[in-house]
Amino acid sequence: MSQRVKIKALLQSQQTDVDVTVKGWVRAFRSNRFIALNDGSTNNNIQIVVDFENTDPALLKRITVGAALSVAGKLVASQGKGQTVEVIATDIEILGDSDPDKYPIQPKKHSLEFLRENAHLRFRTSTFGAIFRVRNTLAFAVHQFFQERGFIYLHTPVITQSDAEGAGEAFHVTNFDLTNIPKTDTGEVDFKQDFFGAATNLTVSGQLEGELGAMALSDVYTFGPTFRAENSNTTRHLAEFWMIEPEVAFNDLTDNMDLAEDMLKYVIKYALDKNAEDIEFLTQRLEEEEKQKPQNERSEMSLLEKLQFCLNHDFERLTYTEAIEILKESTPNKKKKFVYPIEGWGTDLQSEHERYLVEKHFKKPVILTDYPKEIKAFYMRQNDDGKTVGAMDILFPGIGEIIGGSAREERLDKLEQRMDEMGIPKDELWWYLDTRRFGSCPHAGFGLGFERLVLFVTGMGNIRDVIPFPRFPKNAEF
Ligand code: ATP
Ligand code: MN
Q1: Nearest C-alpha to atom 9 of ligand 1 is from which residue?
Q2: Substitution site in 169, 227, 243, 453 for ligand 1 pocket (most atoms within 8 Å of beta carbon)
Q3: What global pTM score does this model have?
Q4: Distance, CA 268 to ligand 1 centroid (Å)?
Q5: Tens digit of pLDDT for each residue in 297-334?
Q6: Which residue's alpha carbon is at the smallest distance from atom 8 of ligand 1?
Q7: Spatial separation of the C-alpha atoms in residues 98 and 67, rounded to whole Å
């Protein structure tokens, strides 16, 4: 038997009338004659032509949707429409049967909700095959972007003693017997007796450790899982997500914005080149979905156009203060259409405001800078006005915030003063403060939520559909 060839390679093959072996799963079987076989290397199936008159009927019966097959045969130019080549089978081996009455994934359209409940099998659909190939490409492109620029990939810890943002959204990590938790004399949990001798949690961000690396290696990035126990049951939040966090010594806020914009454009372009077929498929999928919506709610651009548009335009850069002015004067604000009306300067922007700016006002990606210090983290660099900090959020159409970042406060006195004001324990972060004591320098960084990027590039509407096994409130199955 000839060596197995992946279906993607077969479909691109210039050579016909050669013996091939192909392995994969049955997507459809019609007229007892044509098998659509897929192995995940491409969204396209290879057509296997079965000589049903000379095939054992018992074997034919076992060719069911979902079954795993090994097929040996001849690759020929296709007689039919829809494919250029097909395989005339000479030998079909059933590697794994699939009971057609019980197999949940049928050759028809399933709802995304149904497929989420069958996340263990949803890889076998065209939509999820495309999504996870694109996700793979984007992950690779992220590494390539930073590697080309001489960044060091730094692995920051998953278990930490600090809650980086102090937002109290961290999952506890403990080795205690939960039915018998050791207490101190005063009745508090005695973390000294726990595995690490201190209270620990899953990381909410690798930034603080990333900064330590940048203070010696200059340009670093992390790319790892991040955990947040926030109870936001939205289409843009996961309890476990992957975050990319570059941290760069000697960069200021403008450098930081340039780096983020370059990175986003680089990885989107990379996916467009590498996964053209998958993105074409996802564009059509989205078009079908848009047709279900009322005319005035439909997107003006197709997925492909949106991605290209994003590559071809500079992101709009403006300050928070300028954004507030725009929002205050906006029609939805005046007509009281915002759930959270914009009354004045100082409040955080909600997703509805971010999306108004991006989708209605500027109609392109937006970078907002210089937010009020009250709504941002302690480590952001304080501006001379005494009111704002050197923060930057990048807002994307359909997504809202995709990146959050800032110039970091490198001046020890300013940093300590802000930590005191915000009640951040300085003694616990002695190691972080040490970088400001020994050779401190201006630096900046940001966090890109990887799944939000995958959402944008695949045109999917729910973040739970762009990670293989989503974790969200009340769900950690699979
Ligand atoms: P949001 O306001 O959308 O909750 P955030 O301000 O909490 O975001 P940051 O702490 O700045 O976000 O985190 C950096 C990036 O990580 C965000 O820009 C976003 O892309 C992503 N992100 C944050 N929280 C989540 C989450 N729960 N699930 C998926 N991605 C997230
Ligand atoms: Mn959040």
Answers
A1: 404
A2: 243
A3: 0.96
A4: 19
A5: 888 899 999 999 999 999 999 999 999 999 999 999 99
A6: 401
A7: 5
